[in-house]
C-alpha cells in the first residue's frame, strides 16, 4: 500500500511538471519514453528466448 501511495505521489509530481510545458514538447517527451519502453520490451523478449534455449547444464543451480 505504501508503494502505491509513493507511486501516485511521483506520478502527480511528474504530471504537474508536464503541465507547464507546451503541448508539442510534452507530446515529444511522451513519444520518446514510449519508444524507449518499446525497445526495452523487445530487447527483453528476445533475450528471454535466447536464455530459454540454453542447455540445462548451463543454467546452474541444483538438480
Describe this structure in words.
With 63 residues, the chain is an all-alpha fold. It is 76% helix and 0% strand. The protein has helices at 2-19, 23-52. The chain starts with a helix and ends in an 11-residue tail after the last helix. 0% of the residues are buried. The model has no long low-confidence stretch (mean pLDDT 84).
Describe the structure in brief.
With 63 residues, the protein is mainly alpha-helical.
Return the structural class: mainly alpha
SSE series: HH
Q: What is the total tally of β strands?
A: 0
Distance between the termini: 37 Å
Approximately how much helix is present in the residues? over 70%
Tell me, briefly, the overall form. Answer: flat
Q: Could you give a short account of the major beta sheet?
A: none
Number of helices: 2
The low-confidence runs, each spanning 5 or more residues with pLDDT under 50, are none
Oligomer: single chain
Overall mean pLDDT stands at 84
Percent of residues in β-strands: under 5%
Cα-atom radius of gyration: 19 Å
In terms of topology, how is this protein built?
Layout: H1 2-19, H2 23-52
Features:
76% helix; 0% strand; 63 residues; mainly alpha
Amino acid at each position: 500500500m505504501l508503494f502505491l501511495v509513493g507511486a501516485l505521489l511521483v506520478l502527480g509530481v511528474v504530471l504537474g511538471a508536464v503541465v507547464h510545458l507546451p503541448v508539442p514538447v510534452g507530446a515529444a517527451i511522451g513519444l520518446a519514453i514510449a519508444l524507449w519502453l518499446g525497445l526495452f520490451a523487445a530487447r527483453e523478449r528476445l533475450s528471454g528466448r535466447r536464455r530459454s534455449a540454453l542447455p540445462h547444464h548451463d543454467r546452474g543451480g541444483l538438480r
